[in-house]
Amino acid sequence: MEISVRKEGSTAVVSVKGRIDAVTATEFEKGLAALMADGDNMLVLDFSGLDYISSAGLRSILSTAKQLKAKAGKMVFSALQGPVKDVFKISGFGSIFKIYETEEEALRQI
Asked: What pTM was estimated for this model as a whole?
């Protein structure tokens, strides 16, 4: 898994490539926690390069979302592909979180 972060105004765009699974979910969650500790409470997660997400990855997302809510923050997703998009639909995450087709659209809406 590779994570890269860039700032777009007051929003942090987090691009994730590879897999978020039982092995990498903790690293993913720690990366998001570090952003929040630095004061980044508006997050766009760009999953265009994400190939796979497991239940451990979904738990990391829920945990982060709870922390963000306590800080009046927001997390949205963009560019979900194939199996990751299917997992979000099946798990119900598609109704919990805002998902946008493109990063640009997500940035306009956050």
From this structure: 0.95
* Domain 2-105 listed as CATH 3.30.750.24: yes
Residue-range domain boundaries for the chain = 2-105
**Two structure tokens written together for 1:** 């898994």
Q: What is the chain's alpha carbon radius of gyration, rounded to the nearest angstrom?
A: 12
DSSP letter assigned to residue 102: S
Residue 1, number of CB atoms within 10 A of its CB: 19
Residues 56, 27 contacting (CB under 8 angstroms): no
Q: Which two tokens stand for residue 18?
A: 């590879």
Average pLDDT (73-100) is 96
* Identity of the amino acid at 75: M
